[in-house]
Amino acid sequence: MSSMGRNFGLAFLAVAMVVVVAFSMSEPGNAAPGDKTTPPTIYPARTPMPGYKTPAPNPFAEMSSEQQATAIATARASFEQRLEVWMANLDISTLDLQELPRAEAMVLSQPGKATLDEAVDAATAIIIGTVTGLRPDRFSTVITVNVERSLKGNIARRPIQIIQGSGFQPGLDWSGVVIADHPNDPLMLPGTRAVLFLQKSSSPDAEFSIQGFSGHYELKAGSVTVLGGNTFGAAIAGEPEATFVSQILSAVARTSR
Question: Sign of the C-alpha dihedral, residues 111, 187, 72, 39?
């Protein structure tokens, strides 16, 4: 299974663990003798989820640890099978992608590079391009980017395939479609123009992936936008495109010596 698949599996198990912990904390019989502290309210077990009229019962209340593990494994297998069928029937050509709700995926993300020079040095290639298409998969999305200009790596002006961990997931009760964004590389939709710091992809479906946090810069109205986790992003956010390109080319010259 790919690292993206493992991340998705970890996210599913994390949700299951939160459910178990939340419900166990909500049961009065599980409190330690003499414990008069107020239960944590981060995951209030008695608060219904949006769209539900009543709280869901604790499915693990009468189960042993072994039974709980079996139930979680069975639920996960059922979920993945249902997701596979859902993905096979997903037709994004029928959707208004710009209007789809977006949510942050429950994944662990590696930090980006600490400085622009480090980000430039770590990149296999740096390009300016526009997204022209995308192809969703179970745990990722392959986007097609038309290369407008190569700032590092001598990438020819042509369409290239880039894999992103972000993608499409079913909404509540498997109704509707939600874009699940990895915080280090949110999904870029057709029409998005960006400066991208690329690295070789291990996926057979794409040539490149995008450097997390420090390699994703969308261009809007001639200005640079940065991701929240970019440690040096504050110095770049809002800069004119030409200024940012000049800074990148200078960094390429410094790091290639």
Answer: positive
**Does 149 share its domain with 71?**
no
Q: Are residues 80 and 19 in the same domain?
A: yes
Distance, in Å, from the CA atom of 206 to the CA atom of 169, rounded to the nearest integer, reads 21
| Together in a domain, 141 and 251 | yes
Calculate the alpha carbon distances from 65 to 15, 69, 94, 156, 168 in Å: 17, 6, 44, 57, 33
Domain that holds residue 151: 116-255
pLDDT, one tens digit per residue, over 136-181 is 988 899 999 999 999 999 999 999 999 999 999 999 888 899 999 9
Look up tokens 């208004």; give the residue.
96
Confidence band for 62, pLDDT divided at 50, 70 and 90 = confident
Residues 79 and 138 in one domain: no
Q: For residue 237, what is the domain's CATH number? A: 2.40.50.120
- The residue among 207, 157, 215 whose CA lies nearest residue 186 is 215
Cα–Cα distance measured from residue 233 to residue 227, given in angstroms and rounded to the nearest whole number:
7
Cα dist. 44→34, 50, 80, 173 in Å? 22, 13, 27, 21
- Report the half-sphere exposure of 27 (CA within 13 A, side-chain side): 13
Cα 144 to chain centroid distance, Å, stands at 18
3-state helix, strand, coil in the chain (%, to 5): 35, 25, 45
State the total domains in the chain: 2
Q: Does a structural domain hold residue 98?
A: no
